[in-house]
Design brief:
Elements: H1 5-21, H2 29-51, H3 56-67, H4 71-90, H5 96-115, H6 122-149, H7 153-173, H8 180-197, H9 204-227
Helix pairs in contact: 1-2, 2-7, 3-4, 3-6, 4-5, 5-6, 6-7, 6-9, 7-8, 8-9
């Protein structure tokens, strides 16, 4: 399991919130049941974050192997990453499904080139990773939307935080500074995600607008990265 600092901090915050919620039981039965349900939902959201598996391990292995001139090993890691991304495509819906499939194809082709010694620059790997990260962002955006439609706030929050994790990684892999609007989106969406996991009451209009702005920024960065050349 690999998480950026923000995702790890989020999972830790969820665990801390659960512990804080487990105080003395309330005398009112309805309030006790509601508190128990909230604590269970928060625990499940934290478990999702702590148990997540990502293609990042394969990306890191491929990059390190390529830099050490171990092309066959790099190719093997790239194919494993492609398989991981393909599995997410199989469980997703469009537009994320199409983007994930395209990313898995790109990684497979890159693996073949790497195995043949045809990859000349690590930038080729980094840009492919950036596109994969943005495809994963779209995947989690779709899942966040589905969770919100199902009125599952904690799940929505977890998916949003994972979306942000991939979004920030993509910017680093592509060596692209984030725009002011993207940085503002990250701050706002991360704050909303934590509130949702903690079971706070948030107006539907605010969640809807935040989801829309988050999706917009993901697509903006994806369009930029798609135009970058190796």
């Amino acid at each position: 399991m690999t998480m950026t600092f923000s995702a790890a901090a989020f999972a830790a915050a969820v665990v801390a919130s659960v512990v804080a919620a487990c105080g003395p039981p309330k005398t009112n039965g309805a309030e006790s049941a509601a508190a128990a349900a909230k604590t269970k939902a928060m625990t499940q959201a934290g478990d999702v974050m702590l148990a997540r598996r990502e293609a990042q391990l394969y990306f890191d292995s491929a990059r390190a192997s390529f830099m050490a001139d171990r092309n066959k090993t790099a190719a093997r890691s790239l194919r494993n990453a492609a398989l991981f991304i393909r599995h997410h495509a199989d469980s997703s819906a469009d537009p994320a499904k199409a983007t994930l499939r395209a990313s898995s194809v790109e990684l497979d082709r890159l693996a073949t080139r790497a195995a043949n010694g045809a990859v000349r620059s690590v930038k080729s790997l980094d840009l492919a990773f950036a596109r994969a990260q943005l495809a994963e962002s779209q995947y989690h955006c779709v899942r966040a939307l589905d969770a919100w439609k199902s009125k599952d706030g904690p799940a929505t929050g977890s998916e949003l935080m994972m979306l942000l994790d991939h979004f920030e990684r993509a910017a680093v892999d592509a060596a692209r500074p984030l725009s002011l609007s993207a940085r503002e989106m990250i701050t706002n969406t991360r704050a909303l995600a934590l509130k949702l996991v903690q079971g706070e009451t948030i107006t539907a209009a605010y969640v809807d607008s935040t989801l829309a702005s988050t999706d917009e920024e993901v697509h903006k960065l994806a369009a930029i990265v798609a135009r970058l050349k190796n």
